[in-house]
Design a protein that fits this description.
The protein is α/β, with parallel strands linked by helices. Helix content is 50%, strand content 10%. The termini are far apart. It comes from Molorchus minor.
């Protein structure tokens, strides 16, 4: 009888141990769904022009799709062939004013070539969405001598923004600039991360399950980007950070003005900005 009771207690303890993480995940998923940002703006973008880097897949594609559905002229800037993405957007939105242009953020030369093309052919640029990112690139360096991940995620967009600022100022009533975090998006994980996922251990299997259950879809992940691109509520807000369509405290380092100034000046140096190109 004593052995039986001990066995029952062991089973109860095991059941609780197994069920608690599951219950926690369910609660987290409910919270994530209830708190997730959702674009509510009905703004029409006819006559506007937007560039979406990395616009042929993932969050970038979902963003471009919504902008096109509002009548916006959308330029998909990607290093991959954008013909398929362009065709799909046109089929869904019936907006034929979609362009694809090659842009490799891992090459400063490609960024300059792209910017020269835009400045020479586009009459206006209302929205620039620096969406393209890479999750991991190890210690790999580009032909420019920069860390590949840093160049794609920071130096490339930094240079591109500088080169297109004059066109943006000319087109928009106020030039504003904001950053955002899309949240945990499973479908938009970089390929490098997906290749690192192994099913050989229970830990990695649990990681995949958590990402699939708790992670946002690419459409959900694009909501904050879309919100910042078209909502009238943020048209006069600049220099802020957003999460789930709400203003959110920026990373701690962003509060250190000396640190930020040092990064800015070093970035100007590393992307070889000319004096007349600096802001």
């Amino acid at each position: 009888m004593i052995v039986y009771n001990a066995y029952i207690k062991y089973l109860a303890f095991a059941a609780i141990t197994v069920s608690l993480p599951i219950i926690a995940l369910i609660i987290l998923k409910i919270i994530q769904k209830l708190s997730a940002g959702k674009v509510k703006s009905l703004v029409c973008l006819v006559g506007k022009t937007a560039i979406v880097t990395g616009g042929c897949s993932g969050i970038g594609f979902e963003t471009a799709l919504v902008l096109a559905s509002r009548g916006c002229r959308v330029i998909l800037a990607d290093r991959s062939d954008g013909a398929r993405a362009k065709k799909k957007i046109i089929e869904i939105t019936h907006n034929t004013n979609i362009e694809t242009k090659h842009l490799d953020l891992a090459s400063l030369q490609s960024v300059r070539k792209f910017a020269n093309d835009i400045n020479g052919t586009e009459e206006r640029l209302d929205i620039l969405i620096n969406n393209a990112t890479v999750g991991a690139a190890g210690s790999k360096h580009t032909d420019d001598g920069l860390n590949a991940a840093m160049q794609i995620n920071h130096f490339g967009p930094f240079l591109l923004t500088h080169l297109l600022t004059d066109l943006l100022k000319k087109s928009a009533p106020s030039l504003t600039s904001n950053s955002l975090h899309p949240g945990l998006v499973y479908g938009d994980l970089p390929l490098a991360d997906k290749h690192m996922i192994s099913f050989n251990t229970l830990i990695n299997l649990a990681r995949v399950i958590v990402l699939m259950i708790y992670g946002k879809s690419e459409e959900e992940g694009a909501q904050t980007t879309i919100h910042l691109a078209l909502s009238n509520k943020v048209k006069n807000i600049t220099g802020k950070h957003f999460w789930d369509c709400r203003m959110f405290p920026p990373p701690p380092g962003a509060w250190n003005s000396k640190f930020c100034d040092a990064i800015w000046k070093k970035s100007e140096e590393l992307v070889h900005l000319k004096p007349e190109e600096k802001l």
